[in-house]
């Protein structure tokens, strides 16, 4: 991926989607805490260490930034994914396992721009399919991903309590 992809979006907003930098971590941690209501500092630092280092062939951590009222660039969203292969017979495909957009900035094309940017990365990595997982009761993410053309795939998630 080139360092920055700029997209014109709704209401004249200019949006840049680029690879994450260490200086973005504070904004990512704060955004995730606002959206999930859980503080996960060490989790995001680990994700950055595993996915945010430059030159990783099959792992992608991208941020979207837009200008605030003062004209400064601020992180308004992020997406993380990787190419995975052969688990339970699945051919190589791209997996999105994190996507978040600043709640006040939603409906401005930010999620779509992030998903498109990681789709480009997945295609360049040689895969032609993308997957994600959404909780059944998470209406907003489900509607977003379906609106972007994603639908139920060939696998069913199963789980068991280990208590």
Brief digest:
The protein is an alpha+beta fold and 163 residues long.
In the CATH hierarchy, the architecture is 3-Layer(aba) Sandwich
CATH topology: Aminopeptidase
Strand order of the largest sheet: 1-2-3-4-5-6
What ranges have pLDDT less than 50 throughout 5 or more consecutive residues?
A: none
How widely separated are the two ends? 44 Å
Shape descriptor reads globular
What's the β-strand tally? 6
| Percentage of residues in strands | 25-35%
Cα radius of gyration in angstroms? 16 Å
Main pleated sheet = 6 strands, mixed
Q: Can you describe this structure?
A:
The protein is α+β, with helices and mostly antiparallel strands and 163 residues long. It has one domain: 3-Layer(aba) Sandwich (Aminopeptidase), CATH 3.40.630. It is 29% helix and 27% strand. It contains 4 helices and 6 strands; from the N terminus they run ββααβββαβα. A 6-stranded mixed sheet has the order 1-2-3-4-5-6, with helices on both faces. A hairpin with an 8-residue loop joins β4 (73-84) and β5 (93-101). It is globular and about 50 Å long. The termini are far apart. The model has no long low-confidence stretch (mean pLDDT 89).
Write the layout of secondary structure elements.
Layout: E1 4-8, E2 14-19, H1 25-36, H2 41-51, E3 59-67, E4 73-84, E5 93-101, H3 110-124, E6 130-132, H4 139-147
Parallel strand pairs: 5-6
Antiparallel strand pairs: 1-2, 2-3, 3-4, 4-5
